[in-house]
TrEMBL record:
Binding annotation for ATP: 95-102
Record motif RadA KNRFG motif, residues: 252-256
Protein purpose: DNA-dependent ATPase involved in processing of recombination intermediates, plays a role in repairing DNA breaks. Stimulates the branch migration of RecA-mediated strand transfer reactions, allowing the 3' invading strand to extend heteroduplex DNA faster. Binds ssDNA in the presence of ADP but not other nucleotides, has ATPase activity that is stimulated by ssDNA and various branched DNA structures, but inhibited by SSB. Does not have RecA's homology-searching function. Plays a role in repairing double-strand DNA breaks, probably involving stabilizing or processing branched DNA or blocked replication forks.
Free-text comment on this protein's domains from its UniProt entry: The middle region has homology to RecA with ATPase motifs including the RadA KNRFG motif, while the C-terminus is homologous to Lon protease.
SUPFAM superfamilies per record: P-loop containing nucleoside triphosphate hydrolases, Ribosomal protein S5 domain 2-like
Keyword check for rRNA-binding: no
Family: Belongs to the RecA family. RadA subfamily.
Domain RecA family profile, chain residue ranges per copy: 66-215
Protein name according to UniProt: DNA repair protein RadA
InterPro entries cross-referenced by the UniProt entry: AAA+_ATPase (IPR003593), DNA_repair_RadA (IPR004504), P-loop_NTPase (IPR027417), RecA_ATP-bd (IPR020588), Ribosomal_Su5_D2-typ_SF (IPR020568), Ribsml_uS5_D2-typ_fold_subgr (IPR014721), Rubredoxin_2 (IPR041166)
Keyword terms of this UniProt record: ATP-binding, DNA damage, DNA repair, DNA-binding, Hydrolase, Metal-binding, Nucleotide-binding, Stress response, Zinc, Zinc-finger
Gene: radA
HAMAP family attached to this UniProt entry: RadA_bact
Source organism of the structure: Diplocloster modestus
């Protein structure tokens, strides 16, 4: 009888399984990602027969009920989740080390415990004393919050079955392991088995589970790519560790929009919500400085005003230097080429530095016109009016194209005290009458430069 295979090769990027090592993964096309790991033992046929088979049902016979979402008490998190936590959902929260993932989830536990909801916080990285120290910094907790320091999945599953909580926090998924899988915790096999176990618990017992995931140096969740496919919602916690603000971004959500963001500020007692991100981002904006323009970007249904800074100066070398922080570097080069070809600005011999103030990252096409105006303002050393904002997509022919949700952008600008909005002419024609602010529509980049001066 042939000997049973005990090892296999798994792709660390997508989890593809192969019987032999390969240089390139045929599934995700990544190179040198295969590692050898023990194969998890298959379950016996007797155990498989004990499962009750589900019978197919008619689509018309399925009853639809309004989703009963649990409010976390943190409005910014509820916004990203689509209105709250859906019962039985599996949520993955990823982010850089020290960014505030555990702090945010501990604050969620604090708010949920005050609503008399049973919450179980399972930590595989910190001791009970370490969690207690952070909890005392955040505030007071009720007795509905239970803590467990464990990494063995069998023990965790027994604890969940015994306690039957409504919300479970797993910190982190890379530390969990199953004894019948002989590979090390954090490996492809262990992460996949652990996620599968928590998914069965969430769906079978109608428990909402948060999974904390480590990220790689590329900024993606460590482990197999299948991890993000198995969960219902994927949230990324972004931001510079040395900056005050944090951004929670939803990249996958089966129960809501995937474009929403939540903005937080790191303080001594934890994370505080930023109710008005536009005002927060514009703090410290210089007055009367050339190369500084306020633009408007949409993140889901939320308009955010950001300051775009540009510095253009003549280069002392044969090859000019171009730098972009917070936006796409290739997009900046493209817009500078449009200015040189369509407007006639001699930028080929100039160094150009473009920065989105505050360290925020925006790639929406609507900020194109703001980048163009900032570059022109710095090149001519002519400041743009501090009470003016601009937005619009710029095409290769120098035309200013329409953007979506123009009315929300204008209303946000009026709320913050801006007096003039430069926007695409096509978007202006479709807007209802809005009082209290001047709207100027432009068709081309040249028209926008003429309006600003």
């Amino acid at each position: 009888m042939a000997k049973a295979k005990t090892t296999a090769y798994f792709c660390q990027s997508c989890g593809y399984e192969s019987s032999k090592w390969m240089g390139q993964c045929p599934a995700c096309r990544e190179w040198n990602t295969f590692v050898e790991e023990p194969v998890a033992p298959s379950k016996s046929a007797g155990k498989m027969q004990k499962r009750n088979a589900n019978e197919p049902v008619k689509l018309s016979s399925i009853e639809m009920n309004t989703e009963d979402r649990v409010q976390t008490g943190i409005h910014e998190l509820d916004r990203v989740l689509g209105g709250g936590i859906v019962a039985g959902s599996l949520i993955l929260v990823g982010g850089d080390p020290g960014i505030g993932k555990s702090t945010l989830l501990l604050q969620v536990c604090q708010n949920l415990s005050t609503q008399n909801r049973k919450v179980l916080y399972i930590s595989g990285e910190e001791s009970l004393r370490q969690i207690k120290i952070r909890a005392e910094r955040i505030g007071s907790f009720t007795n509905d919050l239970m803590l467990l320091c464990e990494t063995n999945l069998e023990v965790i599953e027994e604890a969940i079955n015994r306690m039957k909580p409504e919300i479970v926090i797993i910190d982190s998924i890379q530390t969990m392991y199953r004894e019948d899988v002989s590979s090390a915790p954090g490996s492809v096999s262990q992460v996949r088995e652990s996620t599968s176990t928590f998914m069965q618990i969430a769906k079978g017992m109608n428990i909402s589970i948060f999974l904390v995931g480590h990220v790689t140096k590329e900024g993606v969740v460590a482990g197999p790519r299948v991890l993000e496919h198995m969960v219902d919602t994927v949230l990324y916690f972004e931001g510079d560790r040395h900056a005050a603000y944090r951004i929670l971004r939803g990249v996958k959500n089966r129960f809501g929009s995937t474009n929403e963001i939540g903005v937080f500020e790191m303080r001594e007692k934890g994370l505080a919500e930023v109710a008005n991100p536009s005002e927060f981002m514009l703090n410290g904006k210089p007055e009367g400085a050339s190369g500084s323009v306020v633009a408007c970007s949409m993140e889901g249904t939320r308009p955010i005003l950001i300051e775009i800074q540009a510095l253009v100066c003549h280069s002392n070398f044969g090859i000019p230097r171009r730098t972009a922080a917070g936006t796409d570097f290739n997009r900046v080069n493209l817009l500078m080429a449009v200015l040189e070809k369509r407007v006639g600005l001699q930028l080929s011999a100039c160094d150009a530095y473009v920065n989105l103030a505050g360290g925020i990252k925006m790639n929406e096409p609507a900020v194109d016109l703001g980048i163009v105006m900032a570059i022109v303002s710095s090149f001519k050393n002519q400041p743009v009016d501090d009470k003016t904002i601009v937005f619009g997509e710029v095409g290769l022919s120098g035309e200013v194209r329409a953007v979506n949700m123009a009315e929300q952008r204008v209303l946000e600008a009026r709320k913050l005290g801006f007096e003039t909005v430069v926007l695409p002419k096509v978007s202006l024609d479709s807007l209802p009458k809005i009082g209290g602010i001047s709207l100027k529509g432009v068709k081309t980049v040249r028209d926008a430069i003429g309006i600003i001066g």
